[in-house]
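User: Some background: our group keeps a shared notebook of sequences we're curious about, and every so often someone picks one and asks for a predicted structure to add to the entry. Today it's my turn. The entry only has the sequence so far, pasted here. Could you supply the structure so I can complete it?
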Amino acid sequence: LFVEIYFLAQVLLIIPSDNIIFNMRASIIPDAIFSFTNDNRLDNDLNYLKRNSLLDEAAKLKAEDMASEEYFAHTSPEGLKAWDFINKVGYKFNSAGENLAINFLDSQDAINAWMDSPTHRANILNNNFTEIGIGMAKGEYEGKETIFIVQLLAFPKDEKVSVVAVKETKPQETKPQEIVSPPQPIIVSSEETTTIIENNNQGEVLSMETTIPEVTVSNVLNKNSSISFVNKWLASPHALTNFIYFILLTILSLALILNVFIKRKIQHATLIVNASLLLLVISFVIWLNAFIVLSPVRIL
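Assistant: Of course. Here's the predicted structure to add to the notebook entry:
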C-alpha cells in the first residue's frame, strides 16, 4: 500500500520526483511487462517472445522522444514512425507492432488495458511475432509529470527463431498468421517498401512487404521469460493492494457470516455492525483505489 501511495504521489505531483525511485521502476516494470505479455501468450497457446536488446533500445528511444517532445502518439511531431526508431538501432524485421501506454503505475494494469483493446490484443497475441522490446521514459505530458511506456513486438528478418511451445510435448511447426488490414489502411513509403496499418489511435502494426519464413517452435523454455516474484509485485502495486484488500474482505465476510448465520444464539450486535462498516469501507477503498490509479491512464 505504501509503495502505491508513493507512486501515486509522484504521478499527482504531491511530492517531488525521485530519480532513484524512477530508476528502480524503470528496471523492473519492463521485465514485468515482458513476463505478463508471455503469460498471456501462454494462456492462448502461443510461442514465447524472446527479449531483444535492440528492440529494447528502440522502444526506449521512442519513449524518450515522446517524453522530450511532450506528445503521446504513434507518429512524432517530426513525422517519425515506430520503424524509424527500429531502423535507427539497426534491427532488421519482416513485421513489427507497437503498443503505447501512459500514466500507468502498475505493469499489470498496462497489460490488462492492452488486452482489453482488440487492436493491442492482436499485437500481443500475433503468432508471427517472436521478439519483444520494452522501453520507459519519464517526462511531462499535458502539464503533468508521467511515465511513457513503449512495447515493440517483431519478427526478425529472414530468421528462424526457437521459442517455447505451449502445452506441447513435441516440437511442431506453426504457420505464421496473416496480418489482417483494418478498414482504410494508410500506406507510407520509406527507404524500403513498407506498409503501416494504423487503427484510429489504437495499436499499430507495421509490416515489411517481404515473405515471412516459418517459425520453428521448440519446447525449450526461454529463461528470460519470467522475473522474480518480489519484482513482479513491486512492478504491480495496484494489483498487490487489491489482492490484500480482497483477502481482508474475504476474512471479514466469513467472520460476518459466522456471527449472523451460524452462531445465532450468541450474536453480538456491535461486532456485526462493525464488521459490516469495515466491509463497506474496504469496498469503497477498492473503488477509490481503482478510480485514482486508472482514471488518468491512456493507451495507443
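Suggested note for the entry: The first helix runs from residue 2 to 11. The CA atoms of residues 35 and 226 lie 5 Å apart.
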